[in-house]
Amino acid sequence: MRRDDKKEQLQRIRKMERHFERVSAALKRLSEALAKYKEVQEDIEALSSYYGSDLWKKDFAADEAGLLPQGLKRGVLS
């Protein structure tokens, strides 16, 4: 193998290794995020049911009418 070919080969391998490391790190973060998403799946289903219900409409109307305590967190009603 010629010296120039060897140099190109080493540069290519180093470059591909950087790509490999970035992709590996991203896949690890994605896997962790998917695991967390699965952990809250039950919460997502509960919220989905609530948002489409008459109870949400009732709670929203009570908030609009000023009937809920001022310090109550109500992000779920926005």
What would you note in describing this structure?
It is a single chain. With 78 residues, the chain is an all-alpha fold. It has helices at residues 3-39, 41-51, 54-64. Helices cover 76% and strands 0% of the residues. It contains three helices and no strands. It has one domain (3-66).
Q: Which class do the helix and strand fractions yield?
A: mainly alpha
Q: Return residue spans where pLDDT drops below 50 for at least 5 consecutive residues.
A: none
How many E strands? 0
Count of discrete domains? 1
The largest sheet, given as strand count, sense and whether it forms a barrel, is: none
SS element count, helices? 3
- What is the residue-averaged pLDDT? 97
| Measured distance between first and last alpha carbons | 67 Å
Radius of gyration, in Å, reads 26 Å
Percent strand: under 5%
Short description:
This protein has helices at about 5-40, 40-50, 55-65.
Q: Tags for this entry?
A:
78 residues; mainly alpha
Itemize the secondary structure elements and their pairings:
Layout: H1 3-39, H2 41-51, H3 54-64
